[in-house]
Specification:
Number of strands: 15
CATH architecture of the largest domain: 3-Layer(aba) Sandwich
Order of helices and strands: EHEEEHHEHHEEEHEHEHHEEEEEH
Number of helices: 10
Strand content: 25-35%
Bound molecules: zinc ion
Number of domains: 2
Distance between the termini: 14 Å
CATH topology of the largest domain: Aminopeptidase
Strand order of the largest sheet: 2-3-5-4-6-10-8-9
Shape: globular
């Protein structure tokens, strides 16, 4: 297992520190409590007519967008941004503090909160629903992290950012509400400047009323999903924090000035759909016992141990599905010794480690 210093583990105690360090304390109050009785915080900004609700870390191990929110609102309040005159904003930085503490997607009852929108069985889901009902936002932003397996379209370019204007019915109809979510994404997308190392993707819009985005859309409130993704040289997800920051800042600017309706939905539909065919490493030119050159794919899995996140490599062999590596490593540059690729995966990993330092690829 490998680790390095990164900020992806963002437990409630670290969030409290960030709120204080960034002078957001005065804007923040307790919305309610989680299953394990941890406070769920909400900040309120601005006093304008147009109301926006944003939430992050409903999946506890998805903290990148939380960091972007903190930086953004710290800057906006410091500069006394004019956005705040036109908008009333509620921000839940961490809807799932119990999961965040354990670095888990799920809440303390093992429930995926983003499948609990309509049933609303969990205290965290109830709080989001009641804030939605009381505050009556005109626009919602649902913030997540996505895994490193997503490419923008049928390419080998990772989706550093992904968007979705969720469906509100099985037939994925487009009404005025969904159209305004699509138009907003189109406008945000036009301002992003991808490069050859990363691009932007669009999520599958299969309808699931148990997801908050789909549910809020069905309640006639435009909602967009923004996912922070992976850059092959940035497992700490520091680069993408800035990109998400820019997207959110552009969103607030557009929404504050009410000009999101000027765009049509074609820009949104032009964003390539996500393909889940990327893996962290593609190791090529492995000499195996049969003398044949071969390749395999490695995906890193994360686990929390004593306040640190460790990444452990797992082998994935290409099956019927064609895979691509986020990084390609020519194994023949490390050794010309042969490796028995018929042994079990753990043994293959142990062998690879004799020649390859996986740590080198985790930065
Ligand atoms: Zn998520």
């Amino acid at each position: 297992m490998y680790t390095f210093n990164n900020k992806r583990y963002l437990p409630p105690a670290a969030l409290d520190d960030l709120i204080v360090q960034n002078n957001l304390y005065d804007y923040t109050s307790i919305l309610g409590y989680s299953v394990e009785n941890r406070p769920i915080l909400v900040s309120s900004f601005g006093s304008g007519k147009r109301k926006v609700l944003l939430w992050s870390q409903m999946h506890g191990n998805e903290s990148t967008t939380t960091r972007a929110l903190i930086q953004l609102f710290s800057d906006l309040t410091l500069k006394k941004s004019s956005f705040l005159d036109n908008l009333s904003i509620k921000v839940i930085y961490q809807l799932n503090p119990d999961g965040s503490n354990k670095y888990s997607r799920f809440n303390a009852n093992g429930i995926d909160l983003n499948r609990d929108a309509i049933k609303s069985t969990q205290p965290e889901s109830k709080l989001l629903n009641s804030l939605f009902n009381v505050f009556k936002p005109h626009f919602c932003i649902n913030l997540h992290d996505q895994r490193s397996i997503y490419a923008a379209g049928n390419t080998n370019v990772p989706a550093l950012i992904s968007f979705l204007a969720p469906s509100y019915d099985e037939s994925k109809s487009i009404n005025e509400v969904r159209e305004s979510a699509m138009a907003m994404i189109g406008n945000i997308y036009k301002k992003i400047k991808p490069n050859k190392n990363w691009s932007v993707g669009r999520y599958n819009d299969d309808f699931n009323i148990n997801c908050f985005g789909d549910f809020f859309m069905s309640q006639n409130t435009p909602t967009i999903l923004i996912e922070a993704g992976h850059h092959p040289n940035d497992f700490g997800r520091n680069l993408v924090v800035n990109e998400i920051y820019k997207c959110l800042s552009n969103f607030l600017n557009l929404f504050a000035h009410g000009n999101q309706a000027k765009s049509n939905i074609n820009t949104y539909l032009s964003i390539p759909e996500n393909y889940n065919h990327l893996r962290d490493l593609e190791i090529t030119n492995i000499r195996c016992l049969e003398g044949l050159s071969n390749k395999l794919f490695i995906q890193f899995y994360e686990s929390l141990k004593r306040d640190k996140i460790y990444f452990f490599p797992k082998i994935e062999k290409e099956s019927s599905k064609k895979l691509y590596g986020n990084r390609i490593i020519d194994f023949s540059k490390f050794t010309n010794k042969s490796i028995d690729l018929k042994q079990n995966n753990q043994k293959i990993i142990e062998k690879l480690k004799l020649f390859l330092d996986f740590d080198l690829f985790l930065r």
